[in-house]
Amino acid sequence: xxxxxxxxxxxxxxxxxxxxxxxxxxxxxxxxxxxxxxxxxxxxxxxxxxxxxxxxxxxxxxxxxxxxxxxxxxxxxxxxxxxxxxxxxxxxxxxxxxxxxxxxxxxxxxxxxxxxxxxxxxxxxxxxxxxxxxxxxxxxxxxxxxxxxxxxxxxxxxxxxxxxxxxxxxxxxxxxxxxxxxxxxxxxxxxxxxxxxxxxxxxxxxxxxxxxxxxxxxxxxxxxxxxxxxxxxxxxxxxxxxxxxxxxxxxxxxxxxxxxxxxxxxxxxxxxxxxxxxxxxxxxxxxxxxxxxxxxxxxxxxxxxxxxxxxxxxxxxxxxxxxxxxxxxxxxxxxxxxxxxxxxxxxxxxxxxxxxxxxxxxxxxxxxxxxxxxxxxxxxxxxxxxxxx
Length: 389
Hints:
This protein is α+β, with helices and mostly antiparallel strands. It folds into two domains: 6-90 and 349-378, Phosphorylase Kinase, domain 1 (2-Layer Sandwich); 95-305, Transferase(Phosphotransferase), domain 1 (Orthogonal Bundle). 41% of the residues lie in helices and 14% in strands. It has helices spanning 50-63, 95-100, 107-126, 181-185, 192-207, 217-226, 234-237, 242-251, 262-266, 269-272, 291-321, 325-346, 375-385, and strands spanning 6-7, 10-18, 22-29, 35-42, 73-78, 82-88, 129-130, 139-141, 150-152, 159-160, 353-354, 356-357. β3 and β4 form a beta hairpin. α3 runs antiparallel to α5, α5 (192-207) packs antiparallel against α8 (242-251) and α5 crosses α11. The model is unreliable at 304-327 and 361-389 (pLDDT under 50).
């Protein structure tokens, strides 16, 4: 039976960024004028990866609109070329950029951020979801306003973990510096990996660098598995209270069974006490400003990382240019991904016909007539509607 098509409800805005397999564009809803961030995935890149998108949609449908600090999936639809996922457009920038732009920054500010993010993590966990990629780059502010909500974004690596099944995940995934020991050890992992990541994020918020920073990925992995980190250099940590350090230690407990839950971490005195913890400034007696040291460490690391990435990129290009067959395959895959992403970027939404619409906010506008079909259906249809090479 042929697919019915409907006009697209959105028009294309500017390109906001690019991920491994997708690009992110602004999408403006034609009727309401509202702006969204739209993840655009070329269907040619979906082959063999349908489960990844099916999973992301299932996760987001479960938690969207349930917490002000979790990004919402508002809509998803297909054209003959692409899949589009429409999210909240967060215009307030990344967490650390926001901190560095402030005039001052105190331990109480860090505690307030951690409390808010952990409350959202606790909500996600209660919904049976493990995020698996909590890091500052995935913590965005909704608007540039001073009191804007901070949002947990990017649920591409998240999984639904049904408690009664007691299942554990074993694949290695995430961002290395934020990954828990059990991920590297492949002993099985679940929600405790998010609490470990929050320990790393907290350390980063207090010092401007991460606890397991090492010169090589192997050394970093070994440090994580051994729980080998210190509150050093002392000049950076002298201004941080013992209570805050104790909170970091609790989250960075090597044994996931002994690590606090997200809810348990919220009950730690650093977050739960009615009066904020701080180290008094020796001159004024008021809380010490952490910003000078945090910015200094962050900027130094950024400069080093840029240099390191340049070297890595050169080495990678050299290896891809080599005659080794794997190098050729990798080069071809890389070129295909680039080409397909460019193709997907060229589609103009307002000129495209929508084959399957699954509007989550306005069920009456959905082509399925019942608020959309299941994520399983959407990816089963991919198999039928993929374009030939």
